[in-house]
């Protein structure tokens, strides 16, 4: 049996975390456990501190039984788990900075990773999501370039040189058009 890659799913609210957690566990059925351990956990501000500590300590292990964590921003900045392979946003993130910090948790060990944003219509409402995020998810140009352009500092070299054919879904599609 092969091991599923570590996946981190970000949601904007605790009810959405719970909904996605239940959906995934229902889909997995009996396969949601590895022995006595859950493969999928949820992490948010209402989770007891001792449970949060367990989830973080276990998920950091290279041989972690936990393969997927569904979380709000409570998962916290500064958490370094190098072998997370997938970061998913269920709904658009609140800001470009939030997006960049959260996708930055993916593939910190230098191996390949994937970041996916499922930005459904309600998650793009102007009262809950910044216009730069809306522009990014609706863009037909390079997602990485559009994201990094928000952090450009006048007089500093452009980030265009770090974009390659595999950096995002748009660029990946472009290589098939050639």
From TrEMBL:
EC number: 5.6.2.4
Species whose genome carries this gene: Mytilus coruscus
Protein name listed in UniProt: DNA 3'-5' helicase
Top-rank lineage group of the source organism: Eukaryota
GO molecular function, one term: four-way junction helicase activity
GO CC field: chromosome; cytoplasm; nucleoplasm
Listed PROSITE patterns: HELICASE_CTER (PS51194)
Reactions that this protein is recorded to catalyse: Couples ATP hydrolysis with the unwinding of duplex DNA by translocating in the 3'-5' direction
Start and end residues of each Helicase C-terminal domain: 1-149
Residues that span the membrane, as ranges: none
InterPro entries in UniProt: Helicase_C-like, P-loop_NTPase
SMART domains: HELICc
Taxonomic path: Eukaryota, Metazoa, Spiralia, Lophotrochozoa, Mollusca
Family per record: Belongs to the helicase family. RecQ subfamily.
GO biological process: double-strand break repair via homologous recombination; telomere maintenance
